[in-house]
Design a protein that fits this description.
two-stranded antiparallel ribbon, 6 helices
């Protein structure tokens, strides 16, 4: 597994564990100084990436989560997809095809993603994947803005999950593509 792929899987899984752990620790009556520092740090990070509105956030135990329901859906979707994709077997190029690296080397035109450039076709597919994954969230926003009613947190969570799944799939896919495009040298 590439370093980028492993780091993304680990970070996604860790954040998915940290999100419910913070309200658990925040709800304890006598938190340790380390526990308090952890809670403050997690809620501080959550405040940088999310609006944290109470009416749009889940409450676990007696504390609000560090991110809203939609953000929680995005992060849990990303974690589940990253773990599932990491467990899936990778397609490997045949070892006996010496010209395979040259045939499959991307042209690197177009969009910059994950530290390298993708070919035009890959950039279009990536963009389309992100647009399609954002449609459920867009629909909930249109509903809210046109009716003045906020969808339930479960709906907001479910609408955010496809974004997390799509981002995880794209990061892992492109980390794998980058590894195939730049294979490690074989000692001989």
């Amino acid at each position: 597994m590439s370093a980028l792929r492993a780091a993304f899987v680990a970070a996604s899984a860790a954040w998915a564990v940290i999100l419910p752990l913070a309200p658990y620790l925040a709800s304890r009556p006598h938190a340790s100084p380390a526990g308090t520092a952890f809670v403050v740090a997690v809620y501080g990070i959550g405040g940088l990436i999310c609006h944290q509105l109470p009416e749009r956030s889940y409450r676990l135990w007696t504390a609000q989560m560090p991110v809203c329901a939609r953000c929680a859906g995005i992060y849990f979707g990303a974690a589940i997809a990253a773990i599932a994709l990491a467990a899936a077997p990778l397609k490997r190029r045949p070892a006996n095809d010496a010209a395979a690296p040259l045939k499959r080397r991307p042209t690197y035109e177009g969009l910059a993603v994950v530290g390298h450039r993708l070919s035009g076709a890959n950039a279009n597919a990536s963009r389309d994947t992100l647009i399609i994954s954002a449609l459920p969230t867009l629909l909930t926003l249109v509903y809210e803005w046109t009716t003045g009613h906020m969808p339930a947190n479960g709906i907001r969570f479910a609408a955010g999950a496809p974004i997390g799944v799509a981002v995880a799939w794209l990061v892992i896919r492109h980390a794998h593509d980058d590894r195939r495009a730049h294979p490690e040298p074989v000692e001989g």
